Amino acid sequence: MKDNPLVIVLKLVIADHELRHLFIRSPGKVFKMLGLGCPIDMVGKRGKFCPVMPDLPDGEAAYDIEHEYWASWLKGGLEQLQSFRRIVGNTERYQSRSTFRGKQEWLNFIDNKKQEIASILDELHSSNS
After folding, report:
1. I want to staple 28 with a disulfide (CB 3.0 to 4.6 A). Which of 34, 49, 65, 112 is the partner?
2. Domains of the chain: which residue ranges?
3. What is the pTM of this model?
């Protein structure tokens, strides 16, 4: 079974200290980097990836995760990061960035996860058409 795209993002944030520091400063940037920059993509006919995600607003906020409309929801994700690390445990985590043979291998892993997120979004929206 595939992970929820939000879970993929959090697992990557846990695995990479640089990504985690960026997430702490600007969670929306991390979402954008990993292919979840458009909130409308996170909602299908079967609902939202995250049950506490606010309803989609009208206008540009529906298309930009860094819009101030999403600030409190993203802050909630940031507050949940520590408990998420405990819940995921060691067996379901992605291996730490430091265990990869180099930066390029890590970047390839991230690219694969971005493709996985894109594939999940494609499946969600094609099954909802």
Report:
1. 65
2. 5-127
3. 0.86
Pick from 85, 68, 56, 83: which is nearest to 27 by CA? 68
3 state SS of 49: coil
What is the three-class DSSP state of 45? coil
Geometric angle at alpha carbon 50, from 25 and 15, rounded to 5°: 45
| Single-letter residue type at 123 | E
C-alpha 77/C-alpha 6 separation (Å) is 10
